[in-house]
Amino acid sequence: MGREQDIQRIEHLRTLLTRANDAYYSEADPIMADSEFDELLAELTGLEAAWPACAHASSPTRTVGGTLLEGFESADHALPMQSIDNTYTLEDVERWWDRVRAQIDTDAVHLWADPKIDGVALALHYEEGRFVRAMTRGDGARGDIVTAQARRIACIPMTLPRPLTVEVRGEAFIDDATFVTINEDRAKRGEDLFKNARNTTAGTLKSLDTNLVAERGMRFCVHSRGGGDTLGAATWSEFVGACGELGLPTSTLGRRFDTLEPLLAHLSAFADARGELGYAVDGMVVRVDEFALQTSLGSTSKAPRWCVAYKYPAQRQSTTLKKVNWQVGRNGTLTPRAVLAPVEIAGTSVQHATLHNIEEIRRKDIRVGDRVSVEKAGEIIPQVIAPDIEARDGSERVIEPPSTCPICDGAVEPEGPKLYCVNPECPAQLRERITWFAGRGQMNIDGLGERVVDLLVSHELVSHFSDLYALQAQQIAKLDRMGERSAANLVSAIEASKQRGFAAVLSAVGIRQVGRSGARTLAGAFDDWRALADAKCDALAELPDIGPIIASQIVEFFGDHGPGRAMFEALDEAGVLMTREAGAGPPAGDSGVFAGKRVVITGTLEGFDRRGLTADLESRGAQVSSSVSARTDLLIAGAKAGSKLDKARSLGVEVWDEATLLTHLD
Which of 260, 294, 311 is the last residue of a domain? Predict the structure, then answer.
């Protein structure tokens, strides 16, 4: 290819791989196999090397995939939480070893190999021996805080036997037996099966209902160190041993090697053994054992040079694509599911596989009647990798997406590579939407978690949000494992939710692209829901946090063919408060002492609820963060402030006690 074609290919690959990263890390819904991703990434790396003027710091070749999640507080990682370069052959491992040896001037180097669990990376922080925070990888530099979720992982200790300040990183995962049980329960309720344990783990950690973490039996295993105390260790093997002595869950399958040859033999032998572990392992991580040499080798912008992942090949077979069914997921996503001529893969008969989305179908030019290669890499529903174009005889048919929802016959709209049913009360979406509606940060209905929602929906007691407010205690008490006291408490919590306010309702009902910030803006800008429903697109677009795209979504939601008016009318009749909120609206702009300030709250405050104070400060224009850094403008410190106070003082950050805070609040 010439320069112009190469540049076009670079842009295409960047867009595609960025989307694949988001799908894998943020949506827990991969659109391509790891091997395909790495192949395309290698092609992009080569093109960027050939045309260095086209290189860019945001390229997938230089960044860790993933974005931050709406609804979660985020914080900076003390050390970047990088990914690991993948290899797929023993020869690649040898070449990595040759590069390592070329960069160090000692023969006193050892290697360590342990299984690469296919889960979700978490960083756990302990201060003075107490568990204080858990964070996801996020974009590598900054992650989402999932402390409440991690507290429900039974094997993570809340205290260490010694008062250590340390960060350990590892993998959260769900084992095979638990995953099978989860899917069996979903099948009984008529719900879509989860694709694999990793996706289920990621989705569970994204849920604001922390009970799901405990109910789904999530586990954790340390796989690396972060910042803080090294526990007196000079090597990874010593560090992992010290972690085990502290009660942190570690792998017992790691092995240390003095030379490369026995390591390569171990990688080959483990290919068969990994199937007996009882949890998903997609490779082995090989690392230089000595911390000093790790530091010397350093890292690229994306991955450390001192370790590499050896990935085992997925099992792949060829079969015929007979037809495509479109399934409606819990968020309204229409997912194409391939119906295949039965084929044996990894000891099971496979008749269905995911096609990811319509854009992937078009990109790969997959057609009904094609001979297709199907891959099973720990997937319950395997994926179609590619068609065999040379095998076509002209009878194959182009796959067309549905124009209406196959469940409710409602409107279907594209958004990026996906299709969505835009009816928020579509039966296929009902359970998840009610769970979200009731969740913390929305209507905050205590006791109305996923299990109870399933009971209410399956017994046809709830089919709309407003139905919740007509429930009677005697109806609920008859449901499985409820009882009179639980039923009475739930009815009381539902009644209390009527007073949560307009912003909470707007955030809870699922207007597309309207998050908590946008909901607060709308709740402060309109007298009531009817005024919002009558608002014109141009007026909405001028509001902060809204803009023309979200404005058009709101107008459509309340339009003649949208569900909004009937939904809000029913909630209004049920007595749910939906009028202008004095404390809502956009941030205070450039006025006020808190406007534009980055604020951290720490310690115990006698006169404030942490969540309420955060909302108050944000309404005054502050950005409230969980970690102290050089960018922090103000630390509000209560009793027992701890290490954040020490760090703020060392950085010269302004510190207020509770009395000082009170003088600056109206």
Answer: 311
